[in-house]
Amino acid sequence: MAESIPAWLPALAPLAVFTALLYLPGGAALWLMGLRPAVALGYAPLLTTAYVGVVTAVCAALGLPFGAIPFAAGAAALVAVVAGIRLVRGRGRLRLARPRRVRWPWVLGALALNALVVGVAYVRHIPSAEAPVYQYDTIWHLTVIRWFLESGDYSSLDAGLVDGTAGGHFYPAAWHALVALTSELSGASIPAAVHGSLLALVLIAWPTAIAWLTRTLFGPSRVQWAAAAGLSFLPAVFPIGFLGYGVLYSNLFGYVLLPAALIAVVAMLRAVSGKASRMPLPALTAVVVAVPIAFVFAQPNTAFTLIVLALPFAVLTLDRLLCRAVARRGRGWLRPAGHAAFAAVFATAWVVIHDSPFLDRTTAVNWAGGAPSTDAAGEWFAFADLTKPQWLLLAFVLAGIVIAVRYGPSRWWLVSAAIGCLLYVVAAAGTATSSQSLRNYLVGFWYTDPRRLAATAAILLVPYLALAVATGVWALVRAWRRRSGPSRSPRTVAAYRRWGTAAAASVMMATLAFDATIGGLALGTRAAHIAEAAAATDAQWYSPAEAAFVSKAEGIVGHHRVANDPFDGSAMAYSLGDLDVYFTALPGNWMGTQTADQRLIRERLKDVATAPEVCEAAERAGIRYALVLHDGDRGVFQNGPHQFPGLAIADDTPGFELAAADGPLRLYAVTACA
């Protein structure tokens, strides 16, 4: 692992910049609204994401280029407005909440353990911060970031313009906008900025968020907090599952926001039920309003995850309100009628939203599955989707569930876990289920993809894992205290208890971390997959030889557009190089439908010498060259027949002239239309 450290140094500046962008605007505004600094920072990513989504859309609508200066100006204006309102309401005095005592050794120790796990299970398997993890969606993510930097239009409403297709252009790109800003401010390359942002999410944002959720569910405990944060990277389904599969960077970002959103929804429902809220009303309102906006621009399907996970608490709150109404009015029928009405409204809204044209591209997907339901339920609880079961983690999770059911509060969270497991079972059943229509309605918001729903296990079960660890530590400390006897002074007993708690927690958490990373097969499977996808070899989808040839081609074509088959790796020439290729993304990522010109070039460009309509399409597209890197059938990116037959160009194809060659790699000038 030590040899990987120098290669990852380019990601350090992006890590710091992305963290500052994610936390400072929202955190400063919420602190000025009266929240304690720690709570303000907990909610900050939600507010910042909502702010980025809105301000980029406004700039695009006004025709203003977005970047570091508009971002900073807007954030400063937001903070100034909040401060001004507080000053007016406070009659010239700005009262800020004081921070509570932070047990820094526990916080830093937990984050250090998590960082060690991330390094062992993830970082050391990627050659450098400049090496992308080549998966189907990688091309799209890097292309959108490059488009933002090049066009100055960072709006999610326009992100789909980059593929040139006709139709909808919306794509949830708040994370991409933050990464583009990170690249601009840090001067890092796009891959380094991406890796820096991912490190910020898995080293800081995710562990602190899931630890905060654990505290909210099961009460304040430094051991629980440290266990949740320190062990947060261990489940093989998330976050590492999204770092190698897909890759699902937008979903990763949305799921990292989920714990804070759940806490905000619970706080809102408690306030609705009449319980006193610890949050000032303006701050609570701002966060609750920010939640749906943030998820629209981060990843909309995460909003539906939030809905199903918060549903049991919402039903519980509704029941309390109905019971009060029955007690006041003496009408017993109000309670069942209220629940029936809520169920009808919820089901109707679910179906209507599912069938809306806005979500057609998501809900129309029918992902393959086929796992028996009993196996799928076990996989979900053992974090075993596409990997071996994590048995030791499962044992601790089950122990935590027993403890929570028997002694602890938040029993509704177990119902949420049951819903999460059920949705995964439905998705994993795939074509084995008897009703595809029902399956699509239940899990269509997640592309009917079991992988996306498997990740909910990390959010739902890590708190139980932490509760079990904390209970085990407390049991060990109590056993030691009983054996130590009354002979020691209270001061000595307190010191021993403090150090004993830390030692017991460290040993237990280190054992779990070692079992999952070094001794476990699940994270090892994920790591091997990532290592293969990030290897800089000639067998790679976009190999070093191809990257070198693209660099050579850039000097020949200048700013002219180049026709290409994106499946042969040339789509990366736009985001990783400086080549204006015509097809910048794979068809599975296109936001709209291909235009008539795209279809002609895709299917018939090789006939340009004999088909005037093809020549006219090439002229309209500004195509002067054609790039051929290989046969387009390498790796996992294309199955079945060649999808871009128009780019099957050879040295003797009429209408083309060889401009550069290196082995099988070719750059042709289009001469038929000259």
UniProtKB/TrEMBL annotation:
InterPro entries: DUF6541. It comes from the Bacteria. The chain crosses the membrane at residues 12-33, 40-63, 69-88, 104-123, 192-213, 225-246, 252-272, 279-297, 303-322, 334-353, 389-405, 412-433, 453-477, 498-523. The keyword Membrane applies. Keywords: Membrane, Transmembrane, Transmembrane helix. This is Uncharacterized protein. It comes from Microbacterium marinilacus.
